[in-house]
Structures are given as structure tokens and as C-alpha cells.
Amino acid sequence: MTDLGVDYDYLYTIKNDLGTVRKEFKECTGHQEDMRDEYGSFYVSGAMDDFTTNWDDHRKELLDNIEKVGKLVEQAIENFEELDKELAEATKGKKKNK
Fold it and tell me: Which one is predicted more confidently, 50 or 18?
């Protein structure tokens, strides 16, 4: 039987990084109107409108997936911490019985 090792620092880093990505995805809206005059061409402006509309749709989907993965990481952390606690208590009980 092998030992299970859990790198809590790594799990917390993932959780924090997902939070940062989530925040960036939420805040990266509304720049299209600011840039409209910079394009210079109706065709470029129209293409950028199409692109940003498409990006907004996919950004929402990505944001949902980022949130789902974040919740899974949080649940994994909670489950491993609870398991660690239970195993520590079980080990204490065995030592007392010896």
C-alpha cells in the first residue's frame, strides 16, 4: 500500500490562481467602445464588433468553467483536510490503546 501525499500549498496556489483568472475574465469587458475611433475603418470596426461579441459569449462559458473548477479545487482541499483530521484522530486512538 502506498502513502497518499497531498501538496496543500499547490492546491491553495491553484485556488488563488483560478481566483485571479476569474477576476480578470470578469473585468475584461467594455473596451470595444473605447477603441472604435482607433480602428479608422468601418470594415475593421465591424470585424472587431463581431470578434468581441463572439469573445463575450465564449468568455462567459470559460468563466463558468473556471468557477466550476475552482469549486472542485475547494472541495478537494476540504475533503483532504477532513481526511487528514480523521486519520490523525484515528492514529491518536491507536497509540493510546497500546
Answer: 18
Nearest to 84 by CA among 4, 15, 10, 2: 4
C-beta contacts of 13-16 below 8 A and 24+ residues apart: 14/73, 15/70, 15/73, 15/74, 15/77
User: 33-79: per-residue pLDDT in tens?
Assistant: 666 667 777 788 778 777 777 777 788 888 999 999 999 999 999 99
String of DSSP letters for 36-67: HHHH-SHHHHHHHHHHHHHHHHHHHHHHHHHH
User: When comparing pLDDT for 18 and 90, which is higher?
Assistant: 18
Residue 29: strand, helix, or coil: coil
**Among 47, 81, 64, CA closest to 89:** 81
Grid cell in block for residue 81 = 483536510
C-alpha cell at 13: 496556489
